Amino acid sequence: MTSTAPRPLRHLGFIHLVPFDRENPAKGLNEGLELFAYAEELGLDSGWVRTRHLQYGLPSPASFFAAAAQRTDRIGLGSAVIPVGFENPFRLAEDLGTADALSGGRVLPGLSVHPPGYPDEVNDLVHDTGWRDEDYGYGRIERLRSLLAGDRVREVPEYNGIGGDFDSERVEPHSPGLSERLWYGGGSLRSAEWAGRAGFNWLVSNISSAENGLTEFSEVQRAQIDAFRAQHPEGDDARATVARVIVPTDGATPEQVRKYREYADARTPRTKKVHGKNTIIARDVLGSLDEIVEFISNDIAFQAADDYLFELPFEFELDDWKQILHQLATSIGPALGWEPAHRRTERAAA
Predict the structure, then answer these.
(1) Domain 11-155+168-349 part of CATH 3.20.20.30
(2) How far is 60 from 38, CA to CA, in rounded Å?
(3) pLDDT (tens digit, 9 = 90+) per residue, 216-238?
(4) HSE-CB for 152 with a 13 A CA cutoff
(5) Helix (H) or strand (E) holding 149
(6) Strand bridging mode 11-16 / 110-112
(7) Is the pTM of this model over 0.90?
């Protein structure tokens, strides 16, 4: 391990699916925007959205960020994660650049790569028939970063007076700094080492891969974080983010507590075995402030992280998510040594 002392918590946020109803998607999408505005009021540092295709969850983070930028002023807008295999890196760079410009440089793109996972006939519709010849490796993300950095795409000929002088040699809108705010969301040592060598930030969540004889979840993730930093040009200063499903019962109604316990109990059996070749799943953390703080403080993956993200359960409702975020910002975070953004601002101005 690169370091034995727990790292100070510098950044606290959440991950949300932004689920919606088939017949009324606008309601769920607008509730997602309301939740981001509420999180900003609480002083949380960032809100992250998942990406879902052919499901009742947000498929387009950049579109959501553009809307959230009009409802918020400060909170970071992260994606956890965008599977770049579904994307044309050129068009994704345009969308992310637009959202980042509208938000004043608050977009935090989390990315991943993997080959198409649908049956062939579905892949033919989703990706077009050329998907079999595409490269879905890490180079796809390298190309996206290059485009976000403003690298030249073409030579622009001298303006000849026809059509307006609007041509650019790079992807527009270009948002300076966006290419340096990229996370790779992974769950293997191979991905961790690649992300480190490539100079990305590292994001891990509640699903991972058992490797090298390790099956205990926190040990697996700690090994990945250490491998990431061992390869990163910034070494021990490289930024790592840990996300888990954590549900506080303090401040919840009896009905909410019952719902939360039933949710966690139903999901616990899946955490007690290895799925498929080597997939492992972290158990959900449900409990009081003291129980949650004790768990996080003793988890060696959290000890190595700079940022903590609470993953909001998909099946809950807006009032439940708000209760979780309120406890995170007002009780759990401060107990872990974190300060809400407005308190930091007040202290800096004093």
Answers:
(1) yes
(2) 21
(3) 999 999 999 999 999 999 999 99
(4) 3
(5) none
(6) unpaired
(7) yes
